[in-house]
Amino acid sequence: MNEPTGTRPFAPFEWMLSLRYLRARRKEGFISIIAGFSFLGIMLGVATLIIVMAVMNGFRKELLGKILGINGHVLVQPLESPLTDWDAVAKRISGVAGVRLAAPIVEGQALASGTQASGVLVRGIRAADLEKLPSIAKNIKQGTLEGFDDGQGLLIGRRLADQLSLRAGDNITLVSPRGAVTPMGTTPRIKAYKIAAVFEIGMSEYDSAFVFMPLPEAQAYFNRAGDVTAIEVYIDNADNVQAFRKPIADAAQRPIFMVDWRQRNATFFNALQVERNVMFLILTLIVLVAALNIVSGLIMLVKDKGRDIAVLRTMGATQGAIMRVFFVTGASIGVVGTLLGVLVGTVVCLNIESIRQFVSWLTATELFSPELYFLSRLPAEMSVGETTAVVLMALVLSFAATLYPSWRAARLDPVEALRYE
């Protein structure tokens, strides 16, 4: 007897049977429950993966933008002699192709006091350079930067202003331990300044600790006789910082020591990358468990449908047709679950901040405290590449889960299946 030639692959009757097996009947209720849990597992696994990866991407982008918005991509420090020729060096570095800004700075620590006191990092900088830093210049909440170089006004962060109960126009007192040298020793330098403006970049660590001062005043306050602490260099492409080290060194034309943003924040960003990879692996287990549920559900369905398979085989259905029927049954759970997971994940990512605020209101707690996470809002940045990887991973696991049960159904002997019917 010749083997039946069968029909073309994925014929309408195969789809009809596959979808029919997905609908619950009374005696197949438990199998349908397993299929439902598989569907929910894949949907929630895919959605959770997309949301978590998007939030971690958002964290990295926001932190990188804020950290590099106030700190340069490359810090140029002097070697052998003080940086007294800072103006000429800064101009030469600014001329390097791809360098956006070379800003000479004077840095020092001080104690800021108003109604209370707080330690701050004072940074002396020119007004023209400050206006080229969008994270500062575009986030002035009170006051103005006009005449910043001419007067003795300071620019302070919003959280520092709130902590000291001060506003633009009020006076703030700075106390530096390194003041004038007297016969009795070094005395602290205490001086009152007017607050010219208040900024808020949304990163609590900077909003509560940074004070910007006109460069000439900072040189006088910290006893820098015509020199500066360093030159902050900002480039167009932060990820390509390594390529700028040699051109900057050549342009400086003097002994310098360079530290780029990757070296200054290596521990932080490496930890963030490791955390992203570990979270991806852990959350993939959710999809894997759901795929294993597909395996168990299909095996039970094959055992329950043994008589149907035998009848189909005697009517001329090929082993390939039987295999495709159960493949489509299991794959449908994975495909629909994955697509709905992508939809749910996308909707949550687009409304993540509103959801955070609602949950905070509902639980009367502060989720993602700015003091702990450094950000004033919860960011989410979906990546096309990562989302595609999540979808492909879920589909591959779903399809792989159907292979053994489908193969087992195709191998079922119709004679044995009908012997006791």
Report the end-to-end length measured between terminal Cα atoms: 24 Å
Radius of gyration: 33 Å
Total number of strands: 12
The global form is: elongated
Q: What percent of the residues sit in helical stretches (DSSP H or I)?
A: 40-55%
Q: How would you portray this structure in words?
A:
There is one protein chain. This protein has 421 residues and is α+β, with helices and mostly antiparallel strands. It folds into two domains: 12-64 and 268-419, no CATH class; 81-254, no CATH class. 54% of the residues lie in helices and 18% in strands. The chain has helices spanning 12-22, 29-70, 86-94, 127-130, 134-137, 158-164, 204-207, 215-221, 245-252, 261-264, 266-304, 306-314, 319-350, 352-363, 370-373, 384-410, 414-419, and strands spanning 74-78, 99-113, 117-125, 140-143, 154-157, 171-176, 181-182, 185-186, 189-199, 210-214, 230-235, 256-260. The chain has a six-stranded mixed barrel with strand order 2-3-10-5-9-6. Strands 7-8 form a two-stranded antiparallel sheet. Helix 1 (12-22) packs across helix 13 (319-350), helix 2 runs antiparallel to helix 11 (266-304) and helix 2 crosses helix 13. The chain is elongated. The two termini are 24 Å apart. The model is unreliable at 1-5 (pLDDT under 50).
